[in-house]
Automatic annotation (TrEMBL), chain A:
GO molecular function, one term: ATP-dependent protein folding chaperone
One cellular component (GO) term of this entry: cytosol
SUPFAM superfamilies: Actin-like ATPase domain
Keywords: ATP-binding, Nucleotide-binding
Keyword Cell wall biogenesis/degradation applies: no
Keyword Nucleotide-binding: yes
Protein name as annotated: Hsp70 protein that interacts with Zuo1p
Gene3D superfamilies to which the protein is assigned, alphabetical: 3.30.30.30, 3.30.420.40, Actin, Chain A, domain 4
PANTHER family cross-referenced by the UniProt entry: HEAT SHOCK PROTEIN PDR13, HSC70CB, ISOFORM G-RELATED
Disordered as annotated region, ranges: 486-512
Regions of compositional bias (Acidic residues) in chain numbering: 495-512
TrEMBL record, chain B:
Chain spans, region Disordered: 1-23, 100-124, 274-301, 352-389
PANTHER family named among the record's database cross-references: DNAJ HOMOLOG SUBFAMILY C MEMBER 2
Protein name: J domain-containing protein
Residue spans of biased composition, Basic residues class: 282-297
Record SUPFAM superfamilies: Chaperone J-domain
One example GO MF annotation: ribosome binding
Comp. bias (Acidic residues): 105-116
Biased composition regions of type Basic and acidic residues, renumbered to the chain: 1-13, 352-380
Stored InterPro entries: DnaJ_domain, J_dom_sf, RAC_head, RAC_head_sf, ZUO1-like_ZHD, Zuotin/DnaJC2, Zuotin_N
Annotated Gene Ontology cellular component terms: cytosol
């Protein structure tokens, strides 16, 4: 029969292996990535393993054992992978199984079987078991055995950590096709959604506010190729800190009523923390949330509610830290905030509306902030990494291991990038040569990996005749375009009804200057002349920069004959 | 900076939309991206001062080396170019050529059957008698056609026979065959309807060979059972196999087919049931009739299948072969067993014989040794007699140790009594030793000395007392 002869399509999945939560995704036949729910229906599967009796629990079930059986429950182990005991920060594991020293680095000691001595599980072993459970869930969902996966890791994962992760995965029979960076996966998840097969150039900031840490990365996306320009990490900022704010708030409330501090009892604290996490999640969706815990401490039940405003006030400091991290990473990338075209918020804590709105405020209104609070079309930030990984997995599913190895080899990945944007001088649309106008149409943004090629068509000239094509390197400038008093009055004139507020507005506005980023000619590289272009005819210009920075310019009139072609020799590197 | 990416005009038909070719896989980037801007280029104001139309001013700034993230379709395209040292246009050309080949491969091959003019002029209302697979050009696949194949075949047929297309080509507005295609698609893409149609799809049946048919039975029967197997609820269906099939395989095959569980239904052949608004009794009557007809057909089908299996069983030479082999095996076993028995009997016999022989020999040896012992005893006895005589003779020769003349009778008596006593006290060997010492001795004192010595030794052994001897001591 014909169908059995055809090569079986490989089943590959993407795994986002997080410190607090993991998720799995696969790419359907229509090319859309979908996140898979595990047997319990969770798309965010807590990276927790718990041993009760002779049973191993995983995911949400294991997480609930943090209250009842914390010493045999392993959580927050991802970041311990491949690190020495001295190098790890055990704070997060305070309320779960404690990390202990082991020959290979870090391990946990848990009562795995009832009638045996406590077993020592290394982080690698725990990782293997965790990935096995994830892979089993995916296999159950898809009804097919899983052939391979792509796993996402933070940008600061070292080579040895990647290797250990790969081995741990192999330990449960799952081949790791590739290990990719989380922010890049998040970017890929959005890029795959765009319909065009020719993505434009943009500079993207990915902010990943996770459960225990926050990472920010500036990525240059140039024609669908991604380059990390800068990364910044905060290991003490994440969902747990936001939970802690609520824990403190409710503890104080409880103490007022019952004179006992639930934070002093480990079990009460675990209960409260678990409920506060849920409350926090609810507050991302609605403006107020209830919390009710039976027998929180000393046998007292606890019922209370909190509204979003209160929560935002309480967590202001943490949001400030996120904003600070964003600012510092852009600075580290040697860029201006206005150079960022798009901000992608990833990680579960990005659901918090305040985080999104504060970041939105930081950037000009033209910058898109992809998060549920600021954009209706945003993808669930917690699922981004898994989706991106699934897309990458589907792309390389049919590749041989050697092909992947070769394609990801530094010989291929390390590429020269342009340091200056490259463009063509354009005529001023108004003819006034205003300062706040673009002087150059940018073909190739700075940080574009070469070889690269871009083509654009222009409307020849207004009058017809000879056309000058001047290829230049571009400098970007911020121009103050703050409206003058008269203009402002014009705008404010509309709101004459609320005169009381007017004054405040004015005061605010005076401090706030409006800037615009415009392109300016920095250096002329080459000039070309195109003769006798008819009025309204279109001119097509193609710039091609080779790997050795040889620039080839081709210009022609669309539909016409002949054209100009010239080459600027590259540098002897 | 304003950019506008040109989008192809989305023309959609309201009725019977033409199927659009599925999207290109994301990792294939073929056409060059041209950004259409609304910018104008500056006019050349001053006179062009250079000889050439292209004038180089400076080189590009020095690049910086950075690590690309090895992720995404565009990176993979980059990696492909870099690894194979291709330029953009070369890569575009190669990828495009490959893609064209893939599309061609997908199109040709499977679904390209010549269209029967009779089929083209079919009346779509008569869809019950229509060969749906032939309409879509899948007659060589039939029930084996995959959903993917059906989809592809449908797309291809529609592209060819769409009424709009025919109208555009200047033909008459005839959409009959298009309706046939749509009906075939409707039935073949609905799993329930497809099963109903497959149930009565005679074209897919393979006629079983007659009982008298000659030739390779495997060639004759395998296609029959392969085709019948499509109705099985249980999968996989065992194949008829070939002459290398083992006995359990063949047995399993017949077991399976005698307990065949078929999903075949005959609803497709139902008579049309009148609408509700017509006579209700009439409707029920037709329904009953249909039900009965289905049941009847099902029974017939079961009987037919049974006959096929019976025929196959009757013709199956393998069964005879197996029986023969079994008999041979049995016989071989029997022969082996008999041989074994014979061998054992022989062995037992041999053993018994050996045993008897051994016994005999033993007995003979015993007898011989007994005889020897008797002779020795006799000899010893004789020797003892002789020795005793020697002793007595010695005493006589020494004149009974009387100094002169004839010894008086009491002396003789005493001496002889002592000698007799000594003889009784000595055993045969001692007697022999003493006799040998005495042999040849004539002197009375020597003889007496020897005798006295031997008396002393007997006394010292404690077998006699000195007082017993009267004459010699």
């Amino acid at each position: 029969m014909s169908d059995s002869d055809e090569p079986q399509q490989k089943t590959v999945i993407g795994i986002a292996f997080g410190n607090s939560n993991s998720s799995i995704a696969f790419t359907g036949p229509d090319g859309k990535a979908e996140v898979i729910a595990n047997e319990e229906g969770d798309r965010q599967i807590p990276s927790v393993l718990s041993y009760v009796g002779d049973e191993e629990y995983h995911g949400a079930q294991a997480k609930s054992h943090l209250v009842r059986n914390p010493r045999n429950t392993i959580a927050f182990f991802r970041d311990y992978l491949g690190k020495s005991f001295a190098a790890v920060d055990p704070t997060n594991a305070h309320s779960s199984a404690h990390p202990i020293q082991h020959d290979t680095g870090v391990a946990f000691s848990v009562q795995e079987k009832t009638d045996e001595d406590p077993a020592t599980l290394t982080v690698s072993e725990v990782t293997t078991r965790h990935i096995k459970r994830l892979s089993d869930s995916a296999a159950d969902f898809l009804g097919k055995p899983i052939d391979g996966c792509v796993i996402t890791v933070p940008t600061d994962f070292s080579e040895s950590q990647r290797k250990l992760l790969s081995e741990a995965s192999k330990g449960c029979g799952l081949t790791v096709l590739q290990i990719i960076h989380e922010p890049v996966a998040a970017l890929l998840a959005y890029a795959a959604r765009e319909e065009t097969s020719h993505p434009g150039d943009k500079t993207v900031l990915v902010v990943d506010v996770g459960g225990t840490r926050t990472d920010a990365a500036v990525i240059a996306a140039r024609g669908g190729m991604y380059t990390l320009l800068a990364t910044q990490h905060d290991y003490e900022l994440g969902g747990r800190q936001f939970d802690e704010v609520l824990v403190d708030h409710f503890s104080k409330e409880f103490m007022k009523k019952h004179k006992t501090d639930p934070r002093e009892n480990e079990r009460s604290l675990a209960k409260l923390r678990l409920e506060c996490e849920n409350t926090k999640k609810t507050l991302s969706l609605s403006t107020s949330s209830q919390i009710s815990i039976e027998s929180l401490a000393d046998g007292f039940d606890f019922h209370s509610s909190v509204n979003r405003l209160r929560y935002e006030l309480l967590s202001k400091k943490l949001v400030d830290q996120v904003v600070g991290l964003v600012e510092s990473v852009v600075k580290k990338a040697d860029m201006d905030l206005m150079d960022i075209n798009e901000v992608i918020l990833a990680g579960g804590t990005s659901h918090t509306p305040k985080v999104a709105t504060r970041i939105q405020q930081l950037f000009p209104s033209t910058t898109v902030v992809q998060s549920p609070a600021t954009s209706t079309t945003a993808i669930n930030p917690a699922e981004l990494c898994a989706r991106g990984a699934a897309i990458q997995a589907s792309l390389i599913a049919e590749f041989e291991a050697e092909d992947i190895e070769q394609s990801t080899h530094p010989a291929v990945t390390v590429t020269p990038h342009l340091t200056k944007s490259l463009g063509v001088v354009i005529a001023s649309p108004t003819g006034t040569n205003d300062k706040a106008e673009d002087k150059v149409y940018v073909f190739l943004e700075s940080e574009t990996a070469v070889p690269a090629r871009r083509t654009a068509t222009f409307i020849g000239t207004r009058e017809g005749g000879d056309v000058l094509i001047r290829i230049v390197e571009v400098r970007k400038e911020s121009v103050d375009v703050t409206p003058t008093k008269e203009e402002k009055a014009k705008i404010n004139g509309v709101n004459e009804d609320d005169e009381d507020d007017d004054e405040d507005f004015d005061e605010d506005d005076e401090d706030e200057k409006v800037f615009k980023r415009v392109t300016e000619v920095e250096r002329v590289i080459a000039e070309a002349e195109l003769k006798d272009v008819k009025k309204g005819a279109k001119v097509e210009v193609m710039l091609n920069v080779a790997g050795d920075l040889t620039l080839t310019v081709t210009a022609r009139v669309v539909g016409g004959q002949g054209g100009v072609r010239g080459t600027v020799p590259g540098l002897t590197l | 900076m304003e950019k506008k990416i040109s989008k192809p005009n989305d023309e959609r038909r309201k009725k019977n939309p033409l199927p659009v070719q599925s999207n290109q896989p994301a990792n294939c980037i073929i056409a060059m991206n041209v950004v259409a801007t609304t910018h104008t280029l500056p006019a050349l104001e001053a006179e062009w001062s250079h000889d050439d139309a292209f004038h180089i001013v400076e080189q590009l700034s020095k690049p910086i080396h950075r690590n690309l993230e090895p992720v995404g379709p565009h990176y993979l395209a980059h990696a492909r170019r870099k690894r194979h040292h291709r330029t953009f246009s070369e890569d575009d050309r190669i990828v495009a050529a490959q893609q064209a080949k893939n599309v061609e491969d997908a199109d040709s091959g499977e679904i390209s059957e010549p269209e029967d003019p009779l089929l083209l002029s079919r009346d779509p209302k008569d869809w019950k008698n229509q060969d749906h697979y032939a309409v879509l050009g899948l007659s060589k696949y039939r029930w084996k056609a995959t959903d993917e194949q059906i989809k592809k075949a449908h797309r291809k047929k529609v592209l060819k026979h769409h009424p709009d297309k025919k109208a555009a080509a200047g033909g008459i507005d005839d959409d009959n065959f298009f309706k046939c295609i749509q009906k075939a698609m409707e039935i073949l893409t609905d799993p329930v309807k497809r099963r109903q149609y497959d149930s009565v799809d005679e074209f897919a049946d393979v006629e079983p060979p007659s009982r008298k048919a000659k030739g390779n039975i495997y060639k004759l029967w395998n296609p029959v059972f392969d085709s019948e197997g499509r109705f099985s609820k249980k999968k996989p269906v065992p194949r008829f196999g070939d002459d290398k099939s083992t006995k359990p395989e063949v047995e399993e095959f017949y077991n399976f087919w005698y307990n065949f569980d078929s999903w075949r239904t005959f609803e497709y052949l139902d008579e049309d049931v009148p609408d509700d608004n017509e006579n209700r009794d009439q409707k029920r009557h037709v329904e009953r009739k249909n039900k009965a007809a289905r049941a009847k057909r099902k029974t017939e089908d079961t009987a037919r299948l049974r006959k096929i299996v019976d025929d196959a069983l009757a013709m199956d030479v393998r069964l005879q072969k197996f029986r023969k082999e079994e008999k041979l095996q049995k016989d071989a076993k029997k022969i082996a067993r008999e041989a074994e028995e014979k061998r054992l009997a022989e062995e037992a016999k041999k053993k018994a014989e050996e045993e008897a022989k051994r016994k005999e020999e033993e007995e003979a040896a015993l007898k011989a040794s007994k005889a020897d012992a008797k002779k020795a005893k006799e000899a010893a006895k004789n020797a003892a007699k002789k020795n005793k005589r020697v002793l007595r003779k010695g005493a006589e020769d020494a004149n009974y140790f009387h100094p002169d003349g004839a010894a008086p009778p009491d002396v003789i008596n005493n001496v002889l009594a002592d000698v007799e006593l000594l003889i009784t006290k000595l055993d045969n060997e001692e007697l022999d030793v003493v006799a040998k010492k005495l042999a040849g001795l004539k002197v009375a004192d020597d003889i007496k000395g020897i005798l006295v010595d031997s008396i002393h030794t007997t006394v010292s052994k404690g077998s006699a007392k000195e007082s017993d001897y009267k004459a010699l001591i």
